[in-house]
Structures are given as structure tokens and as C-alpha cells.
Amino acid sequence: MPEYICVTCGTEYPESASPPEHCLICEDERQYIGANGQQWTTLETLQGDHRNTIRVYEPNLLGIGTEPKFAIGQRALIVQSTGGNILWDCMTLLDESTIAAVTNLGGISAIAISHPHYYSTMVTWAHAFDAPIYLHAADRQHVMRPDSSIHFWEGETKLLGGGITLINTGGHFAGGTVLHWAQGAEGRGALLSGDIVNVVQDRRYVSFMYSYPNQIPLSARAIRRIVASLEPFEFERIYSAWWDTITPKNGKEAVRFSAGRYIKAIEGTLIS
Asked: Which of 22, 89, 12 is nearest to 44 (CA)?
């Protein structure tokens, strides 16, 4: 039996003889059901008309993205560290050519994901590379395909080794997580943030939202928590969720400034 995949968000569900009646990820107010209603596909179907590409961002950091765009359209990242390769965030398509390419890069030692919108086919990826998945326990209820490869962590940080730390910032989801890579950006530090900390069109700045598609803002308290959780970490560069959403320099200052501007806007003190 196939594992059906939601066309709108790319989330994979447990195998079943027929598609599920609902996608609980899309029915949550942070996401949405497509204009044509709930639709489903399978990985086999997706493999027939989509492909993945791999690009090098900087030494020991690569991106993997699907063409043409599928579902939310995020790309994943691979961090090559002394502790093994980490797959950060996930995207739905996995095929034999991708498995071969990633294996040639050294495989995957662990998978870590920022929030439920990017869980996608994480279990299929974990099985393909015999890798554990690390998710924050606060988002346990949003796992649609339970599996023994999933490990829930608690608290504010989790060390993965090789200079890599997972940080629970909250925000978009209670378990919202970013990855700090100490060796990134030529040793000045990089933040891999999904859209928990989202690089915007003016790449010098970032934004923070409870729901991006439905344009629901976060509270000032949630923003202050994000900034405080990142304060102990140095980072020059920010890699958000899509190919070109990168703040190349002054990343930590970009977070501080953008948070201050955001709080002024929602509290009504930003001059217009």
C-alpha cells in the first residue's frame, strides 16, 4: 500500500489503501487547504515528473531542492561536519539518483527539522540512510507518520556534535528549532533557520510569523524569546528555507534589528 502525500504541504502519511480524509497539517490555521480542495499524490508519482538538484553554498554546506516546485517548495540543506552529515529540514522528493548523490557525499548521520511544515517524507529519508530524526518534543502531536527513527528532544538546546547545536526558539511552532553551525561562514558561524527566522526580500533583514500564508503575526513576547534564545550564539550568515533566502553577513545584527522593528510595528510605535 502507498504512503499518501499531501499535495499542498508535502507531508507523508502512513501507508493506507486509500487517501486519508484530511491533512491535519493543512487544516491547522498556520497552513491552508489548496483552492481545489484536499489532494493527494504518492512518492512514485512524484518521481515520474520531478527531480532534485544539488548546489554547493559554501565549503561543507549543500542545498537539495526539487524541480519543478512541489508543495511548499523549501529546499533541504546538508551540513558536512566532523560528527557526520546532518540533513537540515526535509523536502518530499527522494529518488534513486538523490540517494546515490547523497551517499557519495558521505550519506546522512542524522536528520533535524525546524518545524512540522517541513516534516514531509522524513521517515522515508531516515529509512534510506539509516539515520535518526531529531524533533523537538513540543511538536510531537504534529507527526503524521510515527516511526521508531524519530527521537524527541526537550529543553532549549541539543548538541549534535561537530560544532552543531539545535536551538528551540519557539515562535512559528512551540517546538520551532534553528540549527547553529559554528564552523559555517568561514568560522564566523551560520544559522540554518527554516522560516522560524525568515530571510525576507531585502536580504539584510529577517521576519517572524505565526502563519506566513495566512499572515498571522507573532506576539512581541514570542519575538523577544527568539532573540534571547539566539543571543549566546555567534553567526555571520543566515540560511532560510529557499534557495536564495540568505543573509550573507551581519546575521546576528539583522535578527536584533529586525526584531526591534517588528515589535515596534505590532505595538504601534513604528512611525509611518
From this structure: 12
SS3 of 88, please? strand
pTM higher than 0.85 for the full model? yes
Candidates 268, 265, 264, 259; CA nearest to 207 is: 259
Q: Which domains does the chain have, with CATH numbers?
A: 3-41+52-267 (3.60.15.10)
Tens digits of pLDDT across the chain (272 residues): 899 999 999 999 999 999 999 999 999 999 999 999 999 999 999 999 999 999 999 999 999 999 999 999 999 999 999 989 999 999 999 999 999 999 999 999 999 999 999 999 999 999 999 999 999 999 999 999 999 999 999 999 999 989 999 999 999 999 999 999 999 999 999 999 999 999 999 999 999 999 999 999 999 999 999 999 999 999 999 999 999 999 999 999 999 999 999 999 999 876 65
The side-by-side arrangement of strands in the sheet containing 12-15 is: 12-15, 3-6, 40-41
User: What's the chain's Rg over C-alpha atoms?
Assistant: 18
- How far is Cα 217 from Cα 95, in angstroms, rounded to an integer? 37
Question: What number of other Cβ atoms are within 10 A of residue 13's Cβ?
Answer: 19
In contact, 203 and 258? CB cutoff 8 Å: no
3-state SS, 205-218, equals CEECEEECCCCEEC
Q: Which helix (H) or strand (E) holds 51?
A: strand 51-58
Question: Under a CB-based contact definition with an 8 Å cutoff, are residues 51 and 66 in contact?
Answer: yes
What is the DSSP annotation of 214-257?
A: TTEEPPHHHHHHHHHHHTTS--SEEEESSTT-EE-S-HHHHHHH
